[in-house]
Amino acid sequence: MASSEAQLVRWRAHPRYARARSWLETHGRLLALLRALCDRSDAADGAARAGDARRVREEELPALRDTLDALELQLDAHSTLEDRKLFPFLHTHFRGAFGGAREQFAREHEALDATLATLADGLAELERLAAPSEAATRNALCERTGAMRDTTAALERAMRAHFAAEEKQCVELMLGMSDAQNDAYAAFRMVPPPPPTRSKL
Fold first, then answer.
1. Distance between CA atoms of residues 41 and 157, nearest Å
2. I need a surface site. Which of 86, 91, 122, 145 has the fewest CB within 10 A?
3. How far is CA 33 from its chain centroid?
4. HEC string of 19-62?
5. How many whole angstroms separate alpha carbon 14 and alpha carbon 175?
6. Which residue range forms the structural domain that includes residue 130?
């Protein structure tokens, strides 16, 4: 969860907190995966700077790949729920309070997706560069691991800010829904997906 601890305590005390809990906990899990991705990226960069190409290749890059794959998979499921159910419902039922948030969050999802694509491309290049058949120089390896480290750190900052904005915009609406509105949300059908793009979000 990206919101302050004081805000989370206030929300948890709300009698209808169960309506937002799962969504907020998903944000927490995604942020934990992002933190793990940053830690793995830092470790790969440290190993490269120490001249330990074997460790980069055999330990750090596989761990980075596993973490990035897990993040992309979970983020895709979460963003699909938001883009195709939660945000359309809030937009329809709370147009005044939700305002242009749906479009803003969609733009942010696209930007985050572009950063994830950059990370995936960078990791593929790093895996190629670190392969035993490549005569990668230490400087070349350090340049790529440093870029990976910087990109993962930027992604973590952007995702934390994005989640904080979503939580600020959505949680009070979720907690304030009447029982009838909550039932309407449960019955709300997902809207069709947008036309296919490169985006995974």
1. 15
2. 91
3. 8
4. HHHHHHHHHHHHHHHHHHHHHHHHHHHHHHHCCCHHHHHHHHHH
5. 7
6. 5-187
Q: How far is CA 84 from the centre of its chain?
A: 17
The answer to whether residue 199 sits within a structural domain is no
pLDDT in tens, 12-25: 999 999 999 999 99
Give the dihedral sign, CA 88/94/96/98. negative
Number of domains in the chain: 1
d(CA 201, CA 199): 5
Establish if 192 belongs to a structural domain.
no
Q: Which amino acid is at 156?
A: E
Rounded CA-CA distance 61/43 in Å is 9
Rounded Cα gap, residues 174 and 112, in angstroms: 24
Residue 39 lies in a domain: yes
N residues, the chain: 201
Cα separation, 151 vs 116, whole angstroms: 9
Tokens of 157: 């900052």
Asked if 11 contacts 175 with a C-beta cutoff of 8 angstroms, the reply is yes
pLDDT digits (tens, 9 = 90+) for 30-79: 999 999 999 999 999 999 999 898 899 999 999 999 999 999 999 999 99
Is 176 part of any domain?
Answer: yes
CA 140 – CA 128 distance, rounded (Å)? 12
